[in-house]
Design a protein that fits this description.
single chain, 253 residues, alpha/beta, Spore Coat Polysaccharide Biosynthesis Protein SpsA, Chain A, 2 domains, nine-stranded mixed β-sheet, globular
Length: 253
């Protein structure tokens, strides 16, 4: 007798997430299959994931789309749900997902966007964010984008109710460390795309744009002191990225 195909596979990409991987996996225990792609962790991420019943695979890359694509090859479910290690699926979201994918009526949607609540330094960020994270495997094409990756699927998309809770930017030290890591990749990508020469006014413009987008467009001013800190940090991140790009351009001369 053939084994019944899993309905839902949950994929988590993780690196040095032993402090959070347990809670993340506990929140998706309703899935039929748990897959953790360990991106060269130096802590006990893999061990803890295994203890939670997850299938753990190791693959090292700085290309986030590639990581997600590699993980998808391991999934056997009819549906795939992507969750990051610092995200928690709320009970309401879990219920909504199960309702959608177990409905007797064949859904016309090939995928669903999920509402993510971002917490910066422990404070809920005012801006709303919808992300395509749940889709049928047979509709999935690939993820694209080395850093800001996007899933490509064929078919219509809808939305599910409930929230994905994202505990990010937990400490300033962690924030600065991550910026120093990914800004190098950002700068390298811009160099490869023949970005115009960096001048003082370009750096000033991107810094102000980063701050304005966070503080004004996203409503960071509503978050009080954290909104000010986060928005200043976004400007700082742009400063580091474009300064590194300037440095790379100087070396290329």
């Amino acid at each position: 007798m053939s084994q019944k195909k899993p309905l839902l596979s949950v994929i988590v990409i993780a690196k040095n997430e032993e402090a959070r991987i347990g809670k993340c996996l506990d929140a998706v225990a309703f899935a039929d299959e748990l897959i953790v792609l360990d991106n060269n962790s130096e802590d006990n991420t893999s061990g803890l994931a295994t203890s939670k019943g997850a299938l753990v695979r190791s693959f090292h890359s700085g290309d986030f789309a590639k990581l997600r694509n590699v993980a998808a090859e391991e999934a056997n479910g009819e549906w795939i749900l992507y969750v990051d290690a610092d995200e928690i699926v709320s009970p309401a979201l879990a219920s909504s997902i199960r309702q959608k994918i177990t409905s007797k009526d064949t859904p016309k949607e090939a995928g669903y966007e999920i509402h993510r609540k971002n917490y910066y330094l422990g404070v809920l960020w005012p801006a709303r964010e919808w992300m395509l994270r749940l889709f049928r495997k047979d509709a999935f094409k690939e993820w694209r984008g080395s850093l800001h990756e996007t899933p490509i699927i064929s078919g219509e998309t809808g939305r599910v109710t409930g929230d994905l809770l994202h505990d990010t930017h937990r400490t300033l030290q962690e924030m600065v460390t991550k910026t120093n890591e990914w800004s190098q990749s950002e700068a390298t990508l811009r160099l490869a795309a023949d970005h115009p020469p960096i001048t003082w006014w370009r750096i000033l413009r991107v810094v102000l744009t980063g701050f304005w987008d966070s503080y004004v467009r996203q409503g960071g001013w509503k978050a009080g002191t954290v909104g000010w800190i986060e928005s200043m940090y976004q400007g700082f991140s742009m400063f580091i990225t474009y300064s590194k790009l300037w440095e790379l351009q100087q070396k290329k001369k």
